[in-house]
Amino acid sequence: MSHNPEKVISPFFDLLVCPKCLEKGYVSNNFFICSVCNQKFKIIDGVPIFIDNSREYVDKRENTNPTNPYPQKVIDLAVKNPNALILDFGAGCPRKEHLFNNILRLDAFHYQNTCCFN
Ligand SMILES: [Zn+2]
User: Fold this and answer.
1) Which domain holds residue 79?
2) Considering the domain boundaries, does residue 4 fall inside one?
3) Could you tell me the distance, in angstroms and rounded to a whole number, from the CA of residue 59 to the centre of ligand 1?
4) Residue 7: its pLDDT value, please?
5) Which of 52, 92, 101, 105 is at 20 to 30 A from 112, Cα to Cα?
6) How many domains does one find in the chain?
């Protein structure tokens, strides 16, 4: 297991909001806590887990095989627009060379490079 317990929370943290009330939150003791409704969401390996039922959590961090490869159009979009933010629903486990800093990787499985789990 090579997960980094000190991993910084998602670089997109400032964009994250509570899925219940859409308000900003803060981090405390490995939880994302909504500033308004106080709902708590666990943070695992730096990734906020936005689900109600922990039985729905699927840990795929050990998976090293790339999944869901980006089409060339998406790669071009990410490279040519480095300041644009791209949201990738169902990001899977991209190839290492496709871990662009301007793509927020959201997935229902927690892969090594998932930014947000929902
Ligand atoms: Zn809330």
Assistant:
1) 13-117
2) no
3) 25
4) 56
5) 52
6) 1
pLDDT tens-digit profile of 50-92? 988 889 999 999 998 999 899 999 999 999 999 999 999 999 9
The rounded Å distance from CA 33 to ligand 1 centre is: 8
How many angstroms does the Cα of residue 62 sit away from the middle of ligand 1? 31
User: For residue 99, is it within any domain?
Assistant: yes
* Span from the CA of 36 to the centroid of ligand 1 (angstroms): 5
The answer as to whether 40 is a domain residue is yes
Residue entry with tokens 């039985």: 55
Phi-psi category of 91—alpha, beta or left, where left has phi over 0 and alpha has psi -120 to 50? Answer: alpha
Question: Is residue 99 within 8 Å of residue 86, measured between CB atoms?
Answer: no
* β-bridge pairing 31-34 and 25-28: antiparallel
Q: Kindly report, residue by residue over 91-117, the tens digit of the pLDDT.
A: 999 999 999 999 999 999 999 988 888
Q: Determine, yes or no, domain membership for 5.
A: no
Q: Please tell me the distance between residue 87's alpha carbon and the centre of ligand 1 in angstroms.
A: 22
Q: Ligand 1 mean position to 95 CA, how many Å?
A: 34
